């Protein structure tokens, strides 16, 4: 479809989405979608953005950001069809939120404050940000039966990321370990409880104790200043890299992964780790 001279990139995207959702002339698949049906695609696109960033691939990042933007446009179009809100309302809401959450940068009308009026201490800025978010949560939760000190943390987040956010929120109320070393002790305690549960042979107890262990590890990451999701992504990538190298080493020696016993695989694994260590030295 040719681009109209009056089209901006975003207005063209909005128009294309509206045409795809047209019940008579649009795409049958797009017309059939609902908010719930495209949630998996929305989450997938967010992860693909994160993956492009992790790989440092800016060309791919441009494309993945476009795919993620499409998800926002898709949701906004369905909301507009339902008479709830449109894309402009989404953009307006986030702009207002940015101004509201940055009183150290903007005045009430969204104008930049003079440099002399801006705090420069990151800790002070973060404390201000948290206070504003707490006020927003309190305002949203007025009269809601489910409102509580941990409300508002999205249930759709990956469990590890949500564990970090839950523990960070609780820590804001002073419910926290004093330091990372104390959390290490808690991780060891939870590991012992997993061992006991395994010995008991009760699957539900094992699942519960492993959940407690993972929650403790998420707390340890927070205390260490580490993003647990990013740490696990790196751990996944490391294992994937080493396992692939191990398989290649076995094949180079005339064997294969399916035909190798555990001792042979472990010997190749040790060599791969040693070689990685030598390269990093």
From TrEMBL:
Organism per entry: Methylobacterium durans
Domain named NTP pyrophosphohydrolase MazG-like: residues: 33-106, 182-242
GO biological process, one term: TTP catabolic process
Annotated InterPro entries: MazG-like_dom (IPR004518), NTP-PPase_MazG-like_C (IPR048011), NTP-PPase_MazG-like_N (IPR048015), NTP_PyrPHydrolase_MazG (IPR011551)
NCBIfam families: mazG, PRK09562.1
Keywords: Hydrolase
Gene Ontology MF term list: nucleoside triphosphate diphosphatase activity
Full protein name: Nucleoside triphosphate pyrophosphohydrolase
């Amino acid at each position: 479809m040719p681009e109209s001279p009056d089209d901006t990139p975003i207005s063209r995207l909005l128009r294309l989405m509206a045409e795809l959702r047209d019940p008579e002339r649009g795409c049958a698949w797009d017309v059939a979608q609902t908010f719930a049906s495209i949630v998996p695609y929305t989450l997938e696109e967010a992860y693909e953005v994160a993956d492009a960033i992790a790989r440092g691939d800016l060309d791919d990042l441009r494309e993945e950001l476009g795919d993620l933007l499409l998800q926002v446009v898709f949701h906004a179009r369905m909301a507009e069809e339902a008479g709830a809100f449109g894309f402009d309302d989404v953009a307006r809401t986030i702009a207002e939120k940015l101004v509201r959450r940055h009183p150290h940068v903007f005045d009430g009308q969204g104008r930049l404050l003079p440099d002399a009026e801006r705090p420069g201490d990151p800790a002070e800025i973060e404390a201000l940000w948290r206070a504003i978010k707490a006020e927003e949560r309190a305002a949203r939760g007025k009269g809601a039966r489910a409102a509580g000190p941990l409300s508002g943390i999205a249930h759709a987040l990956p469990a590890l990321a949500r564990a970090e956010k839950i523990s960070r929120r609780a820590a804001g109320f002073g419910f926290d370990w004093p330091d990372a070393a104390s959390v290490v002790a808690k991780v060891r305690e939870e590991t012992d409880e997993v061992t006991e549960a395994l010995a008991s042979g009760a699957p539900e107890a094992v699942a519960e104790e492993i959940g407690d262990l993972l929650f403790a590890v998420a707390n340890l990451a927070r205390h260490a200043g580490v993003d647990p999701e990013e740490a696990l992504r790196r751990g996944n990538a490391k294992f994937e890299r080493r396992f692939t190298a191990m398989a290649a080493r076995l094949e180079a020696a005339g064997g294969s992964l399916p035909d190798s016993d555990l001792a042979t695989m472990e010997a190749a694994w040790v060599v791969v780790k040693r070689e990685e260590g030598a390269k990093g030295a």
